[in-house]
Amino acid sequence: MLFPIGDDDRHLSRPAYVSITFLVLNVVLFLYHHTDEVFTNGWSLVPREIVTGTDLVGRFSIKDQYVLNLYEGPTSVYFTFLSSMFMHGGWAHLGGNMLYLWIFGDNVEHRFGHVKFLLFYLISGVVASIAQIAIAPQSVIPTLGASGAISGIMGAYLVLFPRNRVNAVFFIRIISVPAIVVLGMWGAMQIYGGWGTHQSAGESGGVAYAAHIGGFIAGLIMGGIVRVVSKEERPSLLGQQYLRDPKAKQMW
Fold first, then answer.
1. 251 pLDDT more than 50
2. Half-sphere exposure (Cβ direction) of 62: Cα atoms closer than 13 Å
3. 67: helix, coil or strand?
4. Under CATH, which number does the domain 2-35+81-251 receive?
5. What is the DSSP letter of 251?
């Protein structure tokens, strides 16, 4: 298992403003809602609410195992497509997503441009939610998290920077491998996990594999379009300096 902890950013010459903003928003909103069940379950995305267009409120039994409380949410249930993208179920959920956003988001934002990247992120998140709804349209279990949008970032990164070096933890060692290895393995694990969920009648252990796969495919497609339209990297002072003097990498 490879666990990414960083990548090669020497070709970036300016801050990734949108990625940083999304990261801050996710953290701030999590601090606001993570102890508030009413807000969390009210503003998360509930597949049955989207399918029926009705805001569900009350107690619901889930396969006779436990009772779930749903609360009043936004005026339009469809707003939860957006609100759920900036909510998380716990510290580990938040930390994992924000780490991946921090590692891969800046590169993709650099290639897309700030405005296009913002739209790309939101579209990936919406597509991911639609994929999750498609496999369980009558589910009343709230779904939340930036995983779908960040899966889109990872899909785009795979297409745009397949040979970029990614630092990853492998057992007790840190190794540097091409992005295509790390993200290819991640994508394969989502497909395997999603297939396992399908075989076990939808039991996913709380992981929205369909959303991950949907967002990842959306990222692959949109990243592929950008790669065709804009084949060259944008000019970068750091990239130019590295070409002139390979030892300059030590400066950053």
1. no
2. 12
3. strand
4. 1.20.1540.10
5. G
Dihedral of the alpha carbons of 127, 133, 134, 139, in degrees to the nearest 10: 170
Closest CA to 144 of 193, 83, 75, 205: 83
Q: Which of 4, 10, 5 is nearest to 252 (CA)?
A: 10
**Global pTM?**
0.85
Cβ burial of 58 (10 Å; 0-12, 13-18, 19+) is exposed
Nearest to 109, CA basis, from 210, 222, 250: 222
Q: How far apart are CA 240 and CA 89, in angstroms?
A: 42
CA distance 109 to 106: 5
d(CA 58, CA 163): 50
166-223 pLDDT, tens per residue? 888 888 888 888 888 888 888 888 887 766 554 444 444 467 889 999 999 999 999 9
Residue 61 Cα distances to 53, 85, 226, angstroms: 20, 25, 45
